[in-house]
What we know:
Elements: E1 2-8, H1 15-24, E2 30-35, H2 50-61, E3 67-69, H3 72-75, H4 82-92, E4 97-103, H5 104-107, H6 116-122, E5 124-128, E6 144-147, H7 156-164, H8 176-185
Parallel strand pairs: 1-2, 1-4, 2-3, 4-5, 5-6
Amino acid sequence: xxxxxxxxxxxxxxxxxxxxxxxxxxxxxxxxxxxxxxxxxxxxxxxxxxxxxxxxxxxxxxxxxxxxxxxxxxxxxxxxxxxxxxxxxxxxxxxxxxxxxxxxxxxxxxxxxxxxxxxxxxxxxxxxxxxxxxxxxxxxxxxxxxxxxxxxxxxxxxxxxxxxxxxxxxxxxxxxxxxxxxxxxxxxx
Length: 189
């Protein structure tokens, strides 16, 4: 069984996250989105609460077969370490071949991740190019697959800032159901 997974704050989940899953379609038996309680490399907690972030993910992936949300990190103590999540996935999906998706920008700081050597021994890294002009070199020697022709320049932070400013172009970066949920719940305003 091939299991692909993408972790993150998903605050909010955007079309770039969705495009990563869709880009890997046909390569996995199961795809998991794993929202973090709090990333150890971020200084602040997510703006939306856990249940809101899960609901936005559910709305975004409802149409995707074999995709689901794993709440492991939300139920564990913060901060959320990828190594703990990898060990959880190994216990839950015994013989699965694990593929961790990350943005190419994360590759440059991968050596700062807690237990990064153990992560590398347990997963195959699939790195996605984040935007034009980005030339990322890994901080360590690591074997990974780079998806070069993937270009997504927006971040959740930039989208939150657009929403806070009342900029309706944020809708272009979000699944319609997610955008409507955000407006309905008055998130990020």
